[in-house]
Amino acid sequence: MASDISSRRGLTLGLLALVAVLSYVDRQVFTLFQDDIKVELGLDDAQLGLLTGIAFAAFYALAAFPIARYADRGDRRLVIAVCVSIWSVATALSALAHNFWQMLLARIGLAAAEAGAGPAGMSLLTEIFPKERRTTVISVMLAANAVGLSGGLALAGWLSQWYGWRAVFLIVGLPGIAIGLLVYLLAAEPRRRGVLDPAPPQRSSPGEVLRTMASNPSLRWVALLLCMVPVTGFAFILWGASFFQRVHAMDKTETGFWLGGAMAAGLVLGNLVAGWVGDRYGKAKPRFNGWFAGIGLLVSFPFGLGFALAGNAYVALACFVVVKFTMTLHLGPIIALCFAQVPEHMRAMMSATINMFIGLAGVGLGGTVAGFLSRYFTPEYGELSLQPALAVLSFCLLVGGIAAIMAGRTARPIDEGDRR
């Protein structure tokens, strides 16, 4: 049985990477078309910020914990398959929205379902792959997220030549149901095959994870990092398409191609480099991961300002590639640093907690605050209001860089044998 699990590691990683790609494709369709949605549904930037931000993030966080708690003891591939199917239907239902509240309900369904697949998948992968490949596996999944972010923009931009936003939601949403079925039928799940001990696995709770973080100085610094960095990162991602359309007068096809390509170059390379460096140098010295993450975040700050304030579209794109590459270096190593400091049975719940911080801070605050800042600067800057809004949010990268370095300095890894 164990050999069967080993032979299906690659297939399972590929399927879960495809799930990660799909989740961000569904999100990015909204960001590319949000100005069209704004006009058709009669919204302002603050309402757009709510739809892309706090409304999405709050339900993402609320749903993550109960699903992750089940994933820590139940059939994880079933969790993933059900979540993928639900969010695919929610994406398709977005095409039927005719006002703010209907779109809000569709976004809530999307958020709640997407919250479950990530922690379940991370728990499964870190179990079936050996310790020495863990950071690489985590970074492959993060790179898949990046492919979804960039590919979603490119795909939506390409489809926009022939279809409006409603048709595109249907086109990208419905195929996910089949992907969910493939995960359930083909992915490895040791718990269903009797590979693990017959005793029920230990359970963890959100409170246990939060108490663990509160009692561990390194994880407290990680929490600060996760409250800061996603604010900038998701503000750039969620408002990037509108930024290039408003500030640099790009059309949707150009935006999808150039911004999608810039995301792919920065995010995919950043995650893969982070995985390689983390496994090569941080495997034996987990504290190294914090230093590596912090240096990347500090370097990213000036390029974040350059992206927001550049007067030329291609200079802004070049800065965007660099800032996404350097700031992306932090996440895989930081997740590995967290996993090195908690017992094995807590990993899915820890992953859900990390996602909660990222969701509330990034999608919630980043997307929402950028919208409100844009509205605040509109009387003075007009259509250029996103420039000062995104420049202000760039300063969160400095705080995140310091927090990452301190997380590495204060890390207290536990032995692999003590994690069960």
Describe this protein's structure.
- The protein is mostly helical.
- The chain contains 19 helices and no strands.
- It has helices at residues 2-7, 9-41, 45-52, 54-71, 76-94, 100-128, 134-159, 165-173, 176-186, 190-193, 206-215, 217-247, 252-281, 287-309, 313-328, 331-339, 347-381, 386-393, 396-409.
- The two termini are 21 Å apart.
- The model is unreliable at 193-200 and 416-420 (pLDDT under 50).
- This is Putative MFS family arabinose efflux permease.
Annotate the secondary structure layout.
Elements: H1 2-7, H2 9-41, H3 45-52, H4 54-71, H5 76-94, H6 100-128, H7 134-159, H8 165-173, H9 176-186, H10 190-193, H11 206-215, H12 217-247, H13 252-281, H14 287-309, H15 313-328, H16 331-339, H17 347-381, H18 386-393, H19 396-409
Please give a quick description of this structure.
The protein is mainly α and 420 residues long.
**Tally of helical segments:** 19
**SSE succession:** HHHHHHHHHHHHHHHHHHH
Amino- and carboxy-terminal Cα gap: 21 Å
CATH superfamily name?
MFS general substrate transporter like domains
How many domains in all?
A: 1
Overall pLDDT: 83
Computed over alpha carbons, the radius of gyration is 20 Å
Structural features:
disordered C terminus, 420 residues, 19 helices, 81% helix, 0% strand, Growth Hormone, Chain: A, globular, mainly alpha
